[in-house]
UniProtKB/TrEMBL annotation:
InterPro entries: Glutathione-S-Trfase_C-like, Glutathione-S-Trfase_C_sf, GST_C. This is GST C-terminal domain-containing protein. Residues 1-94 form the GST C-terminal domain. It comes from the Eukaryota. It comes from Thraustotheca clavata.
Amino acid sequence: MVLVTQLCAEKDDNLNTNVFPARLSALEKKVQGPYFGGDSVSFADIFWLDLYENTLYGFPGEIQVSMCEYPKLEAIITSLCSSENLKAYYAAKN
């Protein structure tokens, strides 16, 4: 059991120090305006919100990424989370 715990910790450390920073930096460079495609919300923005909520934000004890290092990506999350249209969509699904 100790070996499994150690392997999981090593995997999480690799994700937090190598994988996520590299991928998020690359994504940050792709943002072309307030959103990935410019001035309008696209599927890429919605996909990013889903990835953020279910992967980065969904495992707070394991995934430890500071979104302050990725201001464009953080701005997309903030914008989408405050969208009345998106709130209405989620409310209708529940």
